[in-house]
Design brief:
The chain has helices spanning 3-8, 19-37, 46-67, 75-84, 88-107, 113-134, and strands at residues 12-14, 70-72. The chain is mainly α. A two-stranded antiparallel sheet has the order 1-2.
């Protein structure tokens, strides 16, 4: 499977480039990151923090895709979007986070506090890497 397959299946659509949407998505994810950063990671919060940080990463990918005129309707398509951009390592990380998020949301799985802490650190690194590479010139 590749990114073009998602376009052909209608899970990704071409759209106009909307800088207002991009700025709105970035504003929202920055607010979410400030909120999430205030929450202590423990047995009770780990699941929600994992999902929350994943959602900020997905929002960032949505913003980046929007700068190229894509509207992505499938979380899995973001993995192939990253691969299309030559970001294979980041694509693998995102896909791992996606699967953990799905296990939490759809199968009632828990996540260990230390695993959550490590994943959050990794997601923040991915967020910063993607922001610096693809959105640094956005004003």
């Amino acid at each position: 499977m590749n990114f073009t397959d998602f376009i052909n299946e209608g899970k990704v659509r071409r759209s106009s480039i909307d800088k207002g949407l991009v700025k709105s998505l970035l504003s929202g994810l920055n607010t979410d990151l400030k909120f999430l950063d205030k929450i202590k990671i423990d047995e009770i919060s780990a699941r929600k923090l994992m999902v929350g940080y994943y959602d900020t990463l997905r929002s960032l990918l949505e913003a980046i895709a929007s700068t190229e005129g894509y509207k992505i309707y499938s979380h899995e398509a973001f993995t192939f979007y990253l691969k299309e951009k030559g970001e294979n390592i980041l694509a693998e990380k995102f896909d791992r986070f996606r699967k953990i998020r799905n296990a939490i949301n759809y199968y009632g799985k828990d996540i260990d506090v230390e695993e959550c802490r490590e994943n959050i650190k990794s997601m923040i690194n991915v967020l910063n890497s993607l922001k610096n590479k693809y959105l640094k010139d956005l004003k």
